[in-house]
Amino acid sequence: MPKKQSGQTGAAVAALDYDVIHAGDCIEVMQSLPAESIDLIFADPPYNLQLKGELHRPDNSRVDAVDDAWDRFASFEAYDAFTRAWLTAARRLLKPDGAIWVIGSYHNVFRLGAALQDGGYWLLNDVIWRKSNPMPNFRGKRLTNAHETLIWAAKSEGSKYTFNYEAMKALNDGVQMRSDWTIPLCTGSERLKTATGEKAHPTQKPEALLHRVMVASTRPGDVVLDPFFGTGTTGAVAKRLRRRFIGIEREADYRAVAEARLAAIRPTDSEAVAVTTSKRAEPRVAFGVLVERGLLAAGETLVSMNGRHAARIRADGTLVASEVRGSIHQVGAALEGAPSCNGWTYWHFRRDGAIVPIDFLRQQIRAEMQE
Amino acid sequence: MPKKQSGQTGAAVAALDYDVIHAGDCIEVMQSLPAESIDLIFADPPYNLQLKGELHRPDNSRVDAVDDAWDRFASFEAYDAFTRAWLTAARRLLKPDGAIWVIGSYHNVFRLGAALQDGGYWLLNDVIWRKSNPMPNFRGKRLTNAHETLIWAAKSEGSKYTFNYEAMKALNDGVQMRSDWTIPLCTGSERLKTATGEKAHPTQKPEALLHRVMVASTRPGDVVLDPFFGTGTTGAVAKRLRRRFIGIEREADYRAVAEARLAAIRPTDSEAVAVTTSKRAEPRVAFGVLVERGLLAAGETLVSMNGRHAARIRADGTLVASEVRGSIHQVGAALEGAPSCNGWTYWHFRRDGAIVPIDFLRQQIRAEMQE
DNA sequence: GAGATCGCTGAATCCGCGA
DNA sequence: CTCGCGGATTCAGCGATCT
Lengths: 371, 371
Description:
Two copies of one chain form a homodimer.
Chain A: H1 7-14, E1 20-23, H2 26-32, E2 38-43, H3 76-93, E3 94-104, H4 109-118, E4 122-131, E5 147-154, H5 165-171, E6 180-183, H6 207-217, E7 223-226, H7 233-240, E8 244-249, H8 252-263, H9 270-277, H10 287-292, E9 301-304, E10 310-313, E11 319-321, E12 324-326, H11 328-336, H12 343-346, E13 347-351, E14 354-357, H13 359-370
Parallel strand pairs in A: 1-8, 2-3, 2-7, 4-6, 7-8
Antiparallel strand pairs in A: 3-5, 4-5, 9-10, 9-13, 10-11, 11-12, 13-14
The first copy, chain A, binds a DNA duplex (19 and 19 nucleotides) through loops.
Family (chains A, B): Belongs to the N(4)/N(6)-methyltransferase family.
Catalytic activity (chains A, B): a 2'-deoxyadenosine in DNA + S-adenosyl-L-methionine = an N(6)-methyl-2'-deoxyadenosine in DNA + S-adenosyl-L-homocysteine + H(+)
Domain DNA methylase N-4/N-6 (chains A, B): 38-258
C-alpha cells in the first residue's frame, strides 16, 4: 500500500542532484540515494543472451553480436540474484505512487517479470516493442525475433500511478493506445558512433520508445531514474520533455558519450510539452484539411511507408487505390490486410525528392492552430 | 540432451490411444501415459493468479484460496508449484526432439517462462498473438491489453525440433515469419455456444492461432497433446491438418462440447496438408555425379557468380584454381576469402552463350531421381 | 541533379550428417 | 563424444556511389 511521504524524506529528496550521471555499480548507488524520491524508473538491464559461437549472414558477413562482459552470467540463479537485488534497491527509491518500466527479450524477460511480481511490484501492462526493421533469422531455424517486451509496473497494488490516457490516445490518432508499439530500431544518425565509427553502445534504444514511455507515465518535472544508463537515451528524452533524470552507469566510456549527448539537447518549448501530456487531446486535424489548404493536391499520389502501395487523393480527403476507397486509415488497412492502420504515419508524399509522412503536414497545421 | 527412444518405450507408445479426450486432472493423466511418445504439446493453462479458479499442489490437493494482498507471495508460490508440476509431467512425455507451446498473459506468462527455463526446456521464441480486435480498456487506466504471449520451447538445448521454415515464409507472403502474429479473437460462428446461447468456454482460442502453431512446428501424423483441452480447439485443428491429438480435460461440460465439435471435423485433403519443403530435405547430390554423367566435362572451366574468378573441373569432381584445389565449396570460399561458400550457387558454366549456375544441373539430376 | 544500385548493419540463445 | 565438411541461409533502412 502506498505510504504518505514523510517530511524527512521530503528533505532528503531536496538534497538529490538531478540531471546527473552517477558512476558505479547501480545497486550500490541506488542504496546511497534517498528513499521514495523517484517518480519513474526505466531499466534496460543486461539480457543474459548466452550466445555461443559466431554467426554469419548468408553473404558471409559476420554479425556483430553482444559479447560484452557485462552481459555474461554464470547461471540463471546468478542472473536472478542480480535481478532481485537491483529491483529491491530500485523499489526503495520509488515514491509510493511511482512506477517502473523494464525491457527485455525472451532470454531474460520472464525472469524479470517473475522477480517484479515476487518483489511486491504490481504489473500494469506488458508492452510489445514491435520492431519494424528487425534483424532476420539468418539460418532459417526459428521465427524472426522481431520484438522486445517491456513491463510496466506500479510500486504496489494500490498505487495511484500516472497514466496520461488522453495523451496516449492522441498519439494513436484518437483511439486507445494498445499494448503493442511499432517503432523502428535505433539506426542512422540517431545511432551514436565512436571516433572510429563503431557503435558507441551495442544496444542503444530508440528515443521514440522512451518518448512514448515518458509521455504515457510521467508529468513535466518528474524525476526519472535509469540504473543502466548506457549512452543516455533516457536522459536525452527526459531533458527534451522537461523531466529530470538521474543516470547510473558503470562504464566510463558510456558515461562520456552520454555527457556529450546530453549537453547538446535543448528542452522542448514548455507549452508543447504541456500540450502533449495534458488531459486535452491534441487538436484533431482531418486529412481533408490538408487538401483544402493546398498542402496536398487532389489527384496527387501517396505512397505507403513500405513503398508497396500507392493511392490517389480525392478532393474530399478520401483516397482511391485499386478497388479500395475510403479514409487514409481504411485504405491503408485494406491494402495491408491489417485490421487497422494509422494513415498519418503510413502514407507518404514526395517533396523535393524526399519521401515525407503526411503526419509532417498535420504537425504544420497544428502549429498554426496554436498561434 | 535428447536420448534415444528405448524399445520398451516404443512398445508403450504403440499402446497409446490417439484422437481421444481423457477425463481427469492433467498431471495424473500425463503421469499415466508412456514417456517420450509425444511430438508436440500445446498448453493453455489457467491464467489464474488471483485464485478465482481452483489451484492444485503437485500432490493434487486443492489449494485453499487466499486472495489477501499480504498473501500474494504464497499465491504465486502455489501457482508456481502447479506450473512446475505439470511442466515436469509434460516434459517426460515429449520425444527427445519434441517441443511445447504455452500461452499466457502478463498475469502468468512470466512465471510460465521462468518455469520452462528452470525445468530444462530450451526457449526458441516468444511469440506475440497480436489481437486485431481486442477488448478496449473501459476505464482508461491502462493501455488496451491487445496481445497475449506464446512461448515455443524445445525439450532440451540440443533438440532437433521441427520448424517448417519454408511453410511459414510462404504464409507470410514470401518473407520470413516474424515473432508477432496478427490474428483476430475467436468470435462469430467459430465461437462455441451453449444451448442457452452463452459462450461454452470463457477463453476459447481461435483456430487460426493453432493452425499457425501446427503448420510451423509439426508434420502430418505427429502426435499433439493438449493437457488443458477445453472445448478442443487443438484437437479440431489437429484433425483437420491430419495430425493426431490427445486431449485432457477435467470438466465434463467442456469435454461434451469438444466431442461434438470434433465429430463434425473433416480432415483436409492430404495433399493440401503437405507443406513446402526446404532444400535441406531434398536428396543430396555430389558434384562429381554431374561430371560422371557428362553434364559437365572434366577440363571445362567454371566462373564465379561475380565473374571475378574461374576454376577448372577435374575428373574426380574437384576444382582447381590458381593455387587452390578442393571441393566446389572449398575453392569458392578460398577465392572469396569467406568462411564458407555454397558452391552450387557460386559457380556458373556457359551454355549457348548464357551463364548458368551449376545448381541448375543438380535440379535436373534430382528430377531424374524422382522418376 | 535525379534515380538506381550497392554495401552495410541491427540485443541472435541460428546446421546436420557421417566417420 | 568430437571432428570434418557439405552446403543452406536475410529484411528494412540508410548512406554512399554510380549512371
